[in-house]
Amino acid sequence: MLHPNVNNSEVVARTAFQPMSFMDILEAVFSIYRNHFRLILGICAVYFIFTFGANLFTAISTLFFKDSGLQGLTIAIDLGVVWITILVALFSAGALLFTGAQLYLGEEITASTAFGQVAHRFGAYLGSFLLWMLVVGLLALTIIGIPFSIYFGTRWGFYAQAALIEGTSATNALKRSRELVRGVWWHVCGIMLAIFLLGFMIQIVLQFFLLFAFGFTEVVSGAGGPLQLFQRMLSPELTDWDGLATYVIHCFINDVVNSLVLPLTPIGITLLYFDRRIRKEGFGTEVLVTSEMA
């Protein structure tokens, strides 16, 4: 939490080009979020529009084709929507990542510029993501592979920053991340995990209270344990046309919360990336920012 006598705009300037603790990173993340809320909200709005629209399209198409015997078409639509949602999430997270980097470095940035950089580097960005998912995702499918999944997920955790900020290729992005994490894996894993958990906790708390405020008592209470509670909150069900209005409101609340919480992870991991460069490479004001952002 920021101290009452500390201006938000001073936090990033105070931590720029200096090693940061976990609390310094959190302060800088929330400072960037508060001071540039309209800019970040504009990027998040793109994510919200696509995800909310995708949820509605999937729900209506499922109901429409449910009794038509065209289950194959429904599955194809669902898979297509899932991939579009993933690409939109990647695009939005990349724009937030690049925006956080520019703001941390004291540069001016607009939403269109951020999206333009992601579009320019999207091939390497997507390629590094697919390589990351291929290894980390496959390892996570088996119990014995989960520890290895966590290991490689952390080891290659800065692939997006390398691809979008440094302009490396997909394979070199993974190698670059490995270099930055070498020797401090536990430190990086702990901070990354803390950032993910913080975002998840904020998301759950906001969804809980908003759903309860809108009368979704059967969602935030009901029978079952914590897993059932999270399932009801995060994944609303739609069984017939009569429940469409309730489903739409539930999805709207969830997607609004997801969009507002989305910036925390990419910006937080980006600040951790800069911290690693400062500690490992002496990254500072002498570095020509323009040469890395080209």
Output the keywords.
mainly alpha, disordered N terminus, single chain
Summarize, please:
The chain is mostly helical and 294 residues long. It has helices at 8-15, 22-35, 37-65, 71-104, 111-120, 122-140, 146-155, 159-164, 170-181, 185-213, 217-220, 226-234, 244-261, 264-281, 289-293.
Largest sheet, if any?
none
Indicate the mean pLDDT.
85
- The radius of gyration over CA amounts to 20 Å
* Percentage of residues in helical conformation: over 70%
Order of helices and strands: HHHHHHHHHHHHHHH
Number of strands: 0
Strand content: under 5%
Cα separation of the termini = 34 Å
Overall spatial form: globular
User: Helical region count?
Assistant: 15
Segments where pLDDT lies below 50 for 5+ residues?
1-6, 285-291
Query: What structural class results from the helix and strand content?
Result: mainly alpha
